[in-house]
Design brief:
Structural class: alpha+beta
InterPro entries: MACPF (IPR020864)
Helix content: 25-40%
Distance between the termini: 92 Å
Strand content: 15-25%
Pfam families: MACPF
Main location: secreted
Number of strands: 10
Radius of gyration: 27 Å
Organism: Dinothrombium tinctorium
Largest sheet: 6 strands, antiparallel
Shape: flat
Keywords: Cytolysis, Disulfide bond, Secreted, Signal
Length: about 425
């Protein structure tokens, strides 16, 4: 048996440090000093109700919360970006793969949104998660799009392309561990059931979120958002709208020096009924400079933007047991109440317009208020209410695009009393 008393002071110190490292599974040699740009953000939890990957206002809450992973570099793996070959980055033990992704202006995609759910499905697709009511309900960009569709009778087209992109994949969830901070909260603060103290579960979500990105796609992103008057859908086909949207995209890109090829001209009809906003994400160049595109492009690898990925529930990382089951209840309640908040917002907006149907809208609002006040709202009742409200406040697309206005009298006697078909 080893007797520490027989060792010299130096040996005692060394042995103590070794035992300490084994106890906490961490040594100074395991520290990651220069991780791949973007990984720090990927280590943070995400609130799925607030997530905003491409915010219209970058000063608003984007849904990213506290760190849920503690990176270690015991394997001492390194990775060199093809976009910045002069720098070798630490590849943490928690990261399985890192690869470049082909992209560019020729891969620009167009999406047209005519409803709230269209917007959410697009956001869900970028986040790599199945669409559920409550997701993105509190996101700043979603609320703006919702306002445009509900209050201004506008529709939305988006065109975007990414550049200098990489994809980072974490290990599968069964090989990952939550950060010490998150585990300490679970072990020391969370009760064993949700009903005993919901505030503790809500605080966990406030600190760490509901999800995490198991895969992240980073790079530079150029995005054009187009608000269209709904009447445009009556006079232009979807194909023509997409062509004009792409034409607007390339026109702006060409002015910045990022495109020199041919492009579709934008019609006067399209220009007169749209509002266009262009945004660059990632990089740090001044886009007002003469060489704005080249400066931005070269700055992207060192300051990439997380523009897409694949979300997984944080619940997957919580150790099995009653607290994990209680957290499942908490997450479902949180999503349902976020969706109820969205329903309330839509109904208040409808009532402020003073439209016919106020009595029914108030009935819906009373149901929403009653559900949101419950400790655990009935999920089926929440979804049923949401479906009813969406049908009630949304003008059907067929009414906008496939109807004729007809009169029962003949002002000139020629019988041409119907408007032209849309």
């Amino acid at each position: 048996m080893l007797r520490i008393q027989s060792l010299g002071e130096d040996m005692k110190t060394i042995l103590f440090l070794l035992l300490f490292c084994v106890a906490v599974h961490r040594c100074l040699s395991a520290t990651c000093s220069n991780v791949i740009p973007g990984l720090v953000k990927l280590s943070r939890g995400v609130d799925i109700t607030k997530l905003d990957l491409t915010p219209l206002d970058t000063t608003e809450d984007d849904g990213f919360d506290r760190r849920i992973f503690d990176f270690t570099c015991n394997k001492k793996a390194m990775w060199t970006s093809p976009y910045n070959p002069g720098v070798a980055y630490d590849l943490p033990d928690q990261v399985e793969t890192a690869n470049s992704i082909p992209g560019g202006v020729l891969d620009a995609s167009v999406k047209i949104h005519t409803s709230f759910n269209d917007v959410k499905r697009s956001m869900s697709s970028k986040a790599g998660v199945s669409f559920l009511k409550g997701m993105f309900s509190l996101s700043g960009s979603y609320k703006r799009f919702e306002h445009s569709i509900a209050n201004n009778s506008r529709r939305i087209a988006e065109v975007e392309a990414f550049f200098s992109a990489i994809q980072l994949d974490f290990l599968p969830f069964w090989d990952l561990s939550l950060s010490n901070s998150a585990l300490n909260y679970i072990n020391k603060v969370l009760p064993v059931n949700y009903e005993s103290d919901p505030s503790k579960f809500n605080d966990f979500i406030k600190y760490f979120g509901t999800h995490y990105f198991s895969t992240g796609k980073f790079g530079g992103l150029f995005r054009v958002s187009i608000l269209m008057e709904s009447s445009l859908l009556q006079t232009m086909s979807s194909r023509d709208i997409e062509a004009n949207a792409k034409g607007s995209f390339f026109k702006i890109l060409k002015a910045k020096g990022g495109y020199s090829g041919s492009m579709t001209s934008v019609s006067e009809q399209f220009s007169s009924k749209t509002q266009i906003a262009a945004r660059f994400y990632g990089g740090n160049a001044n886009l007002l400079d003469v060489d704005s595109w080249n400066n931005w492009w070269s700055s992207v690898p060192s300051n990439p933007w997380l523009f897409a990925g694949k979300l997984e529930p944080i619940i997957n990382l919580i150790p099995d047991g009653p607290k994990k089951e209680a957290m499942k209840v908490a997450f479902n309640v949180y999503l349902d109440k976020a969706y109820l908040t969205e329903i309330q917002r839509l109904l208040y907006s409808f009532l402020n317009k003073g439209k016919v149907g106020e009595e029914r809208a108030l009935q819906f609002l009373n149901r929403a208020n009653a559900l949101i006040s419950q400790l655990i709202p009935d999920h089926n009742a929440v979804e049923a209410l949401g479906s009813e409200v969406e049908k009630f406040i949304t003008v059907p697309e067929w009414f906008l695009t496939r109807t004729q206005l007809c009169y029962q009298w003949y002002p000139d006697g020629d019988g041409g009393q119907c408007s032209a078909p849309s």
